[in-house]
Each structure stands twice: as structure tokens, then as C-alpha cells.
Specification:
The complex is a heterotrimer.
Chain A lengths: L8 H134 L5 H15 L1
Chain B lengths: L1 H13 L2 H22 L4 H31 L1
Helix pairs in contact in B: 1-3, 2-3
Chain C lengths: L14 E3 L2 E2 L2 E2 L2 E2 H20 L9 H20 L8 H18 L11 H23 L14 H51 L1 H38 L3
Antiparallel strand pairs in C: 1-4, 2-3
The chains are: A mainly alpha, B mainly alpha, C mainly alpha.
Chain lengths: 163, 74, 245
């Protein structure tokens, strides 16, 4: 086996030591700092981006609550406005209703009065017509003049007796 | 020539170690498979250990091989 | 098998430039050449891919970042925050082993990690570093690492030597594991390659298909062994830093 040729051991060991020391220095001084710098830079960048994202999300959260508060306020304002309008409308309506009712009552009263007047007039007319008729009938039957005073008394008595 | 024949026989005998290595490797992967079927979530975590155990066990077989080589060629 | 066509011929060390410093042979060999290629490839890969320093990484840059984060996570999970200091070391070990394994997969190239002395050198570096870390952190208390807690005194007589031996066997097992994997994989590919030639065009398709599958497996092994090497280094480091069993 070539691996067990002892004459080959010293050069291999020497060159192994040389190359391993070079490799160690190259790794420790050049390669590893370079890689770790990049990795840490990326880590920092990610952390920074995460912070930024957190800040932005907080901001948007705040804006949202503000917006909601404004919305709530507007809604309550609209509510009070609507309620005020409703109350005003109801008051107006009540007033016009009362006015209308009063007018209607007035009209009814006037109508009743006019009806009573008409009735009275009609009754008076009936009296006079009855008196005329009776006078005419009496004069025709007995050809005698009856005075208006007597005639009226008779009609009154008749009406009273009937009533 | 008798020494030569004895070397051959010795190198052959050195490979008997492979019986134990075979048992060991079978045990490693059998345990890994049955374990990962019981708890598939944990399987990736132990796979590195499986490879390590595989390499360590395989090395035993190669020790035997080196012995055989030493007998034959040294 | 004919001489020169041995499946082990690919591991031959060839001296490209003969050199000798103070009686020690320091010849520039093909192994040395590939070590230089490997460290050049790693450095170029990591610096060129990060050249853009893009916020959104491209394909190469995300590969470089992936390898960085892979080792960083491994260290964090297995050692904890104290392991941060040793990141360049573990990262260099991982990248070196990974690139040696991967560049070795290129046909006609040389696999540095298929040599026991190279892997042993690496493992010994890890072992010595870890032991020094343990001694500097804990001083004499580091010796308590070899004394398991909650064990009767009678058993300690037996357990302490076992602990000590198992501690000192670590670099050997660490190096032999990597070496054996690379050696076996490349030898197997060569053996099957010889079968393709031997069976020629009417029967060689079967081993050729096999080689294709094996090449895929070898890429997996190349990565897996680098991972295992790095994770075991992390575990050893964790032992040295935290001292608990």
C-alpha cells in the first residue's frame, strides 16, 4: 500500500501543515469576515424592514381608529339632526292639525247657526203662511175679516196644541 | 506460497466484520423508518443523526476493509 | 492483477520537486500540489462568490453562505455560544476535508484524504487543539474529565484507564474513519473500472452501471465524511469546554 510508505510521510505532513495554516489564515482573515458581514448586513436589513413594517402598520391602525371615531361622530351628528328635524316636523304637524281642527269647529258652528237661522225663518214663514191661509180660508168660508192679531193668536194656540 | 494463502484466508476472515455492520445499518434505518412512521413530524429532525450514525457504522466496515488491505498489501 | 494496474496505484506519491530542508524531506509531491489546489479552490470559492455582497444571494453566494451557516449551526447546537471562538478552526477543517474529498472525485486527480498520514495529521491537529482548549479553560480540573461521576470507587480502577484510552484513541478513529472511507471508495471504483475493461464492450455495461451508482454514493460519502469529521470535532470541543459526561 502506498499509504504505508514511511518515506512519504514527512513531505506530506510538512505540506499539510503549510497548507492548513494558509487555509486557516485565509478563512479567519478574509473569507469568514466577508460572509458574516454580508449575513449580518442582511439580518440588520431584515430587522430594519420589520421595524418599518411594524411602524407603518401601527400608523395605519391609528388612522383606522381615527377614521372610525370620525365616522362615529358623523353618525351621531346625523342622528341628532334627524331627531331634531323629526321633532320640528311633529310640532309643525301638530300645530297645523290644531289649526285645522279649530277651523273645522268654526265652520261647524257657523253651519249650525245658519241652520238654526234657516229653521227659525222657515218656522216664521210657516206661521205667516198658515195665518194667511187661515185668513183666506175664513174669509172665503164666512166672508168675514179676521184681524191679524186674532189670527196670529189662533195659529200660536194651534201650534202649541200640536207641539 | 503458504504465507500467501494464509494472507488470502486472513483477508477473507477480516470481512466477517461486515455481518455486524449489516445488522447495525439495518437497525439504524429500520428504527428511523419505524420512528418516522410513528411521528412523521419529528423525522426531519433526526435525519441528520441518522446520517451520522450511518457514517459511523459504515466506518466500522471500512476498518475491516483496511485490515484486509493491510493483510494483503502491507 | 498486473503490476502497474493495481487498484492502489492511484494512491502513489510522486515527487514533483525534490526538496530537502535540514535533513527533512520536504519534496513537493502530487499530494502537496492537490493540497495547494484545494486551499486555492476554497479561498477562490468563498471570496469570489461573496464578491458581489448581494443582499439577495445568487447561486454561488448562497452556496458559500449555506456552508457558513451549516457549520455555524452545527457549532451552536453542539458546543453552544462558547464555541463561537473556534468557528474559523472548525470551518477550515470542514472545508479542507470536503474539498479534498470532492476534488478527489475528479478522474485522474489525487485524493489527499486517502492518505492515512494526512488524515492523521488533521485529526491530531483537532485533538491537540481540543486538549489545549480543555487545559487552558480548566487547568488541573481537566483531569476530572477522565473520572466518570456517580460511579463507585471500585469501578473507577477499571473505568479511568478505559476513559483515558478512549480519549487517546480519538485521533486514530477520527483519522482512520476518513482515510478508510476514501481508500475503500476509490479502490472500489478502480476495481469495477478494471471489470469494465476485462469484460470489454459486450459485458462491461453491468459494472459500468454499477460504477455510475457508486460514483453517486461516493459523492454522498465525500460530503458525509466531511460532516462527520466536523461534527466529531465539535463534540470533542464540547467535551473539552463543558467537561461533563
Amino acid at each position: 500500500m502506498p499509504q504505508l510508505n514511511f518515506a512519504d510521510f514527512p513531505p506530506q505532513l510538512v505540506w499539510l501543515a503549510i497548507s492548513f495554516v494558509i487555509l486557516y489564515i485565509a478563512m479567519a482573515k478574509i473569507a469568514i469576515p466577508r460572509i458574516s458581514e454580508v449575513l449580518e448586513g442582511r439580518q440588520d436589513r431584515i430587522a430594519k424592514d420589520l421595524d418599518e413594517a411594524r411602524r407603518l402598520s401601527e400608523e395605519s391602525e391609528q388612522a383606522k381608529t381615527e377614521y372610525e371615531a370620525a365616522l362615529e361622530e358623523a353618525r351621531s351628528k346625523a342622528h341628532t339632526m334627524v331627531a331634531g328635524l323629526k321633532a320640528e316636523l311633529a310640532k309643525e304637524q301638530d300645530a297645523s292639525k290644531a289649526e285645522l281642527e279649530a277651523k273645522l269647529a268654526d265652520n261647524a258652528k257657523a253651519a249650525e247657526e245658519s241652520i238654526a237661522n234657516a229653521k227659525e225663518t222657515a218656522l216664521a214663514n210657516v206661521k205667516s203662511i198658515a195665518g194667511e191661509a187661515a185668513k183666506a180660508a175664513v174669509s172665503k168660508l164666512v166672508s168675514l175679516d179676521v184681524s191679524d192679531a186674532d189670527l196670529n193668536a189662533a195659529v200660536e194656540a194651534n201650534l202649541k196644541g200640536k207641539a | 506460497m503458504e504465507v500467501e494463502a494464509a494472507k488470502m484466508i486472513g483477508a477473507g476472515l477480516a470481512t466477517i466484520a461486515l455481518a455486524g455492520v449489516g445488522l447495525g445499518l439495518g437497525n439504524i434505518f429500520g428504527s428511523y423508518i419505524s420512528g418516522s412512521l410513528r411521528n412523521p413530524a419529528a423525522a426531519p429532525k433526526v435525519f441528520g443523526n441518522v446520517l451520522l450514525a450511518f457514517a459511523l457504522t459504515e466506518a466500522v466496515a471500512l476498518f475491516a476493509l483496511v485490515i484486509a488491505f493491510l493483510i494483503l498489501f502491507a | 492483477m498486473a503490476e502497474g494496474h493495481s487498484p492502489l496505484a492511484q494512491f502513489e506519491i510522486k515527487r514533483l520537486v525534490e526538496m530537502n530542508v535540514g535533513g527533512v524531506d520536504v519534496s513537493f509531491t502530487n499530494s502537496s500540489l492537490f493540497m495547494i489546489i484545494v486551499i486555492a479552490a476554497i479561498t477562490l470559492f468563498l471570496t469570489l462568490s461573496m464578491r458581489g455582497r448581494a443582499m439577495v444571494p445568487g447561486r454561488m453566494q448562497s452556496m458559500a453562505e449555506l456552508s457558513y451557516e451549516f457549520i455555524a449551526n452545527m457549532l451552536k447546537e453542539n458546543v453552544g455560544s462558547e464555541g463561537r471562538k473556534y468557528f474559523p478552526f472548525i470551518f477550515s477543517v470542514f472545508m479542507f476535508v470536503l474539498f479534498c474529498n470532492l476534488i478527489g472525485m475528479i478522474p485522474y486527480s489525487f485524493t489527499v484524504t486517502s492518505h492515512i498520514i494526512v488524515t492523521f495529521g488533521l485529526a491530531a491537529t483537532v485533538f491537540v487543539t481540543v486538549t489545549l482548549v480543555g487545559i487552558f479553560r480548566h487547568g488541573f480540573k481537566f483531569l476530572s474529565f477522565f473520572v466518570p461521576s456517580d460511579v463507585p470507587a471500585v469501578l473507577l480502577v477499571l473505568l479511568v484507564p478505559i476513559e483515558i484510552i478512549s480519549y487517546f484513541v480519538r485521533p486514530i478513529s477520527l483519522s482512520v474513519r476518513l482515510f478508510a472511507n476514501m481508500l475503500a471508495g476509490h479502490t472500489l471504483l478502480k476495481v469495477f473500472g478494471a471489470f469494465v475493461i476485462a469484460l470489454s464492450w459486450w459485458g462491461g455495461w453491468v459494472p459500468l452501471a454499477f460504477i455510475t451508482a457508486l460514483t453517486g454514493l461516493e459523492f454522498l460519502v465525500a460530503f458525509l465524511q466531511a460532516y462527520v469529521f466536523a461534527i466529531l470535532s465539535c463534540l470533542y470541543l464540547n467535551d473539552a469546554i463543558h467537561l461533563h459526561h
